[in-house]
Amino acid sequence: MNGLGLGAFDSSGATEWRETPLSVDKDDTIQVDIAVANVADGLYDSPGCCGSGSRKKLSITSLALNDIDNRKLKYLSTAPHSYFGGNTRVHGTITVEGDKDDELQSLVLEIIQGGNVVATANLATDAKTQLLEPFGEDEKVEITTSQLLFELPSAQAANINGATNGTLSLRVKAKSSSGEEATKDFGAVEILVRYTNSNRYGLRDGNQGGDDWIKPSVKTIIEHFSNITVGDMSNMNGGKFSPHSTHQDGRHVDGWFNGYNARDAATAATIISHLNDATYGSKILTVYVTYQQTNTNAFWNAIKNVTLNDGRMAKDVIKPINGHTTHFHWIIAP
Ligand SMILES: [Zn+2]
């Protein structure tokens, strides 16, 4: 007590409460031993008081990560790009609980590849305003309706290895002003990379995070077929890509070549040449083309009896469908 100095005692001779955190489990029994020591201990009694209070521990109690269309995140766009200011967007909902006197200081999304954190996505501006505040009387901060949560800058995305197909683990990390940390795992998402060659047609669908996201293995295949031009692939993080009903998984690619729109015997010959490509022809599982399977249709007559080099029948691969009079559509092997 002497070491505290006179100023540490109020007019009744009492000090401030001294607080010490103790990590306990529910139903634990705790023994507290208190001792007071001062100079000339024999002269006056020195009482000590013990009180206890519970302090809520920082924890992320709910987490959902979603695609930009607010459906569950299955893929992540992991290459540098210029959409949304160069940020890959992750939407979601989150609840972080903490002590009423504590405050959420930071929240980030960690991207883990091969056991290491290789990139970090930042809390988006609006989410910062909603979440980085004192936990208050209800001892939580939360976003309960899916919205933009995290932004992965291109410079961080560049650290992710997108050379081959694979998955990434996502984990959210919270820190509070009192220095506590908490994490919550989301799970795995598949890598999508960006097709960057210039043989493109149409617009890039920037409001949907671009149209050039594909699986790494598909990128290699599309780059190989340099005599086509390429339209829509998948949008940011895959998933729903209006107006398409497909194009969700980085394996669907729209394409065009000079002479396609005629959809005649010459068109058929070019498509068959793609399917007979010695390196990657067999990776093209389906070609959608608008044509009629009638005896007067030149395109049909040019494919109906053709056996491909890999043994498949051309008519089993090149399937008739509406809406593909000015472009074909490939489904590539996983
Ligand atoms: Zn398509």
Produce a short descriptive summary.
The strands form 2 sheets. Strands 1, 2, 3, 4, 5, 6, 7, 8 and 9 form a 9-stranded mixed beta sheet that branches. By secondary structure, this protein is an alpha+beta fold. A hairpin with a 2-residue loop joins strand 4 (104-113) and strand 5 (116-123).
What does this structure look like?
- The chain is of the alpha+beta class.
- It has two domains: 59-193, Immunoglobulin-like, CATH 2.60.40.770; 196-332, Muramoyl-pentapeptide Carboxypeptidase, domain 2, CATH 3.30.1380.
- The chain has six helices and 14 strands.
- The mean pLDDT is 94.
- It binds zinc ion.
- Zinc ion binds at residues 232, 244, 247, 252, 254, 329.
- Zinc ion is lined by residues 232, 244, 247, 252, 254, 329.
Quaternary organization: single chain
Shape: rod-shaped
Mean pLDDT figure: 94
Radius of gyration: 31 Å
| Main structural class | alpha+beta
* Major β-sheet profile: 9 strands, mixed
CATH class designation of the largest domain: Alpha Beta
Distance between the termini: 73 Å
Topology as a string of helices (H) and strands (E): EEEEEHEHEEEHEEHEHHEE
